[in-house]
Amino acid sequence: MSKGDFASMMEAGFSADKVQKSKSLRTGEVVEGTIVQIGRDSVFVDVGATTEARIDRTELEDKQGNLQVKIGDKLRASVASVSDVTGPVLVMALGRGQRGQTDVSQLAAARESGIPVEGTVSKAVKGGLEVQVAGIRAFCPASQVDLAYIADLAIFEGQTLQFKVVEIKEDGRSVVLSRKALLEAVKQDASREVLARITVGGDYEGVVSSLQKYGAFIDLGGGVEGLVHVSEIAHRRIEQVQDVLSVGEKVLVRVLALEPNDKSPIPKLRLSLRAMTEAPVVVTPEPGEVLTGKVNKHTSFGIFVETPKGSGLVPLRELGIVRGADHRKFFPIDSEVKVVLVNAENGGKLTFSVERVASVEERQNFRDFARGGATKPAEASSVGSFGDLLRQKLNLASSKR
C-alpha cells in the first residue's frame, strides 16, 4: 500500500468518524453534553453536533454572579435555536439568567418548541398559582402544579420553578403554564433510562410502593413499577400480601416479562420474588399419617395447622367438637394439636382432621400389637392359642388348671 493510499484511507476514516459522531439537533430538544470551553459571555458544550453548542454564561451563574460549572462537567439543556453560522444555542429555561425582559413572542416560541420557562410564584390564588415570567404575569392551574394533588399551594409562594407554556391568549394578557407537563417529561426520560438497562430474566433491587389483594407493586426507580403477583411472592401459599411484605421495604426481584401497556408508554413489568429463592423440598404426609403441629390461624370455616410436612386446613366438621361451639377457644393460636391427613391436592393444599386421630391411632396400635405377636412363632406355638397369646400380653393368669 502506498503512502498516498494510506493517507487517503486515514482521511476517509476520520471523516466517517466525524459524520458518525455528529447529529442533527431540533429546536426544543433536550440534550446532554460536556462543557469544553468557558468564555466571558458564553459557555460552550459538546453535544455531539458538528459544532459546539453555546449557552449564555449568566444561565449558569448564581445570584452573586459566581459560575456554577467547570470544564468537563455534564450539562443538560434545551435547544433554543439551530444555525449553520452560529451553531446550536442552548437554554436551561427561558427567562433564567437572561438579560432584559421576555416578550410574548419569546413565550410563543417556547410554547411551539417545548422549551421550559422559568418563573417565580408570586402568590397562590383560587384554583392555582400566579407566576411572574421575566415581567409577564402567568397562571398555573392547580391540576398542573405537580404530578400528585397538592392541597396547600401556598408552599410554592416565593419559589422559582420551571414550567411549560400551554396557552397564550389576548396578546399575552392570559398565559397558562404547566409544571406537571415538565415533570412528566422528566419522569419519562428517567423511565427510559431505567428501562434501557432492564432485561427479562435480570435481577434488580426495588422498593415496595403499594400492596394490593392480588400482589405488590415494586418501584425500580425512574417511575418504573412492576407487579409481583401474590403467586410469585413465595413458594408457599400466601393468604394476605401484608403478612409478608410492607410498603417501603427493599426487595430483590427478577423480571419475568415486559408486556405492552395501552395506557402508558412504559410497559407492564411482571416480577417475581419467588424466583430469587430455591423451592423448598416438599415432603407430603402419607394418607392416614398422624402429625403434631401448631395452630397458626383461625377462620370461620376451621383452623390452619402448621406441621413438619406442611400447613393445612382442619375444617369445622373435622375438629371433633360440638357443632356451634367456638373452635377458637378449643384451639388457641400456637396451641399444639395432633392431626391426620385426609386429603392432599396437586397444588399442595392439605386437609387435616383432628377427630379422626383417635381411630387412626387405635388401628395403628392394633397393627403394632399384631406384628409384635407374629415375630415370635416358637413362643406362639408353645402357648397354643390366640387367647393364650392375648392373656400373655395382658399379663393375665392362664385358664388352664
Describe what you observe in this structure.
This protein is α+β, with helices and mostly antiparallel strands. Helix content is 21%, strand content 34%. It has seven helices and 20 strands. Strands 1-2-3-5-4 form a five-stranded mixed β-barrel. A five-stranded antiparallel beta sheet has the order 8-7-6-9-10. Strands 11-12-13-15-14 form a five-stranded mixed barrel. A hairpin with a 7-residue loop joins β4 and β5. The longest helix is centred in the first third of the chain and has 19 residues, at 3-21. It starts with a helix and ends in an 8-residue tail after the last helix. The model is unreliable at 1-22 and 374-384 (pLDDT under 50).
Number of strands: 20
Helix content: 10-25%
- C-alpha end-to-end distance: 127 Å
- Residue windows where pLDDT falls under 50 for at least 5 positions: 1-22, 374-384
Q: Biggest sheet: strands, sense, closure? A: 5 strands, mixed, barrel
On the 0-100 scale, what is the average pLDDT? 80
Tell me the strand percentage band: 25-35%
Number of helices: 7
Tell me the structural class: alpha+beta
Lateral arrangement of strands in the main beta sheet: 1-2-3-5-4
Integer-rounded radius of gyration: 38 Å
The best one-word shape is: elongated
Secondary-structure element order, as H and E? HEEEEEHEEEEEHEEEEEEEEHEEHHH
